[in-house]
Amino acid sequence: MIRKVFTAAIISGLFLASCNGESKKDSKETTATETTVKEEIVADSIINEDGSKLGMAFNNSKNTATVLLNGEEIELEGQKAASGIWYKNDHYELRGKGRDLELTKDDKVVFKHKDDVVESTVIDKTGKKLQMSFNNTLNKATFLLDGETIHLKGDTTGSGIQYSNKNYVYTEHQGNMELKKDGKIVFEIKK
Q1: Are 42 and 60 in contact, with CB atoms under 8 Å apart?
Q2: Which of 167, 170, 106, 101 is nearest to 132 (CA)?
Q3: How far apart are CA 171 and CA 146, in angstroms?
Q4: Rounded to 10 degrees, what is the CA torsion of 77, 117, 123, 176?
Q5: CA distance 125 to 185
Q6: Whether the model pTM is above 0.70
Q7: What are phi and psi of 12, to 5 degrees?
Q8: Rounded distance between C-alpha atoms, residue 144 and residue 164, angstroms
Q9: Which of 65, 89, 141, 174 has the smallest CB count inside 10 Å?
Q10: Domain 40-113 classified CATH 2.40.128?
């Protein structure tokens, strides 16, 4: 009798464990499917200098874009662009490269955005060259020094400017420039 109860308990336990395994497996498959769907669409929005906002959703698997401007939802089909993006329908056309975008309706510009970017190249007293690109819209900077590209984010300062990342800190104040890597000066211009 004890043997029959014990056997029944083991069989029941295996059955329940088996059901639990299938439930977890189904759950994993559902999660993977949901993740894939979310990864197909890239959403962004951008505000132009007039304060107008353009919402955008790009479905990369279908090569389509949906833009939202002034409450109007516009569906566009992807086109082959030499560089950047190009989407259009019978009336609208969205073209751009990076964050610089232009939306036209029947060949008239209805939305335009261009980041405020300042580029400069400076040379220190030893002849070392530092190429700098400041994106004031995003409060980011990109430098090129000795073949290395350095991406920095703007910091709040009391005076002057400062950009930094994990390893680098760039400061500029009253015409003096300094770029440090891990606390050591790697580029400097003093007035």
Answers
A1: yes
A2: 170
A3: 19
A4: -150
A5: 14
A6: no
A7: -60, -45
A8: 14
A9: 174
A10: yes
Q: What residue has token string 């400041």?
A: 134
- Domain ranges across the chain: 40-113, 117-189
- CATH fold group of domain 117-189: Lipocalin (2.40.128)
Residue whose pair of structure tokens reads 């959403």 in the numeric block = 43
Token pair in block for residue 24: 């977890």
The pLDDT assigned to 99 comes to: 87
Q: In this structure, are residues 21 and 32 in contact, taking their beta carbons and an 8 Å threshold?
A: no
- Of 167, 108, 111, 118, which is closest to residue 139 (Cα–Cα)? 118
Do 40-113 and 117-189 show the same overall fold?
yes
Q: Tokens 């559902």 belong to which residue?
A: 30
Tens-binned pLDDT, residue by residue, of the chain (191 aa): 444 433 444 444 434 444 444 444 444 444 444 544 455 889 999 989 888 999 999 999 899 999 999 999 999 999 999 899 999 999 999 999 988 999 999 999 999 999 999 999 999 999 999 999 999 999 999 999 999 999 999 999 989 999 999 999 999 999 999 999 999 999 999 98
Count Cβ atoms below 10 Å from residue 164 Cβ, excluding itself.
Answer: 15
- Rounded CA-CA distance 95/111 in Å is 11
